[in-house]
TrEMBL record:
Protein family (similarity comment): Belongs to the Homer family.
PANTHER family cross-referenced by the UniProt entry: HOMER
Main location per the UniProt record: cytoplasm
Localization terms from the record: Cytoplasm; Postsynaptic density
Protein name: HOME1
Gene: HOME1
Organism of derivation: Poeciliopsis prolifica
One GO cellular component term noted in the UniProt record for this chain: cytoplasm
Length: 143
């Protein structure tokens, strides 16, 4: 099935200047589509934005990410995997609020998905541990 877009908006995209870590560098000349995607096969949520022919945002949402509103129409989040900070400038406060709300929603979904996958890992390892334990007990009884 692949990735499916689950929410889209338009915003001006910025990235923090890697040299100064202070100044914003525009990643788009004008407002572009910024979309949340869900990949059912990998159970991950991503934020993707394409400017022209290249991806200007490709950020996998993790449970420890935080989207921060820094002004009435601007917000940002750090992506340690991409080693950058993304900034989004919106045309209105309501667009910023809606994006922040969706970010929080999908961050929570990512946290739950991570917990669920850890439970599956724990459960899938349990039968072999039980088999080993049963085998050890059986061997002990033979002695």
């Amino acid at each position: 099935m692949g990735e499916q877009p689950i929410f889209s908006t338009r915003a001006h995209v910025f990235q923090i200047d890697p040299a100064t870590k202070r100044n914003w560098l525009p990643a788009s000349k004008h407002a572009v589509a910024v979309s949340f995607f869900y990949d059912a096969s990998r159970n991950v949520y991503r934020i993707i934005s394409v400017g022209g022919t290249k991806a200007i945002i490709n950020s996998t949402i993790t449970p420890n990410m935080t989207f921060t509103k820094t002004s009435q129409k601007f917000g940002q989040w750090a992506d340690s995997r991409a080693n950058t900070v993304y900034g989004l400038g919106f045309s209105s406060e309501s667009h910023l609020s809606k994006f922040a709300e969706k970010f929080a929603e999908f961050k929570e979904a990512a946290r739950l998905a991570k917990e669920k996958s850890q439970e599956k890992t724990e459960l899938s390892s349990t039968p072999s541990q039980v088999t080993s334990l049963v085998h050890a007990v059986a061997c002990e009884q033979l002695w």
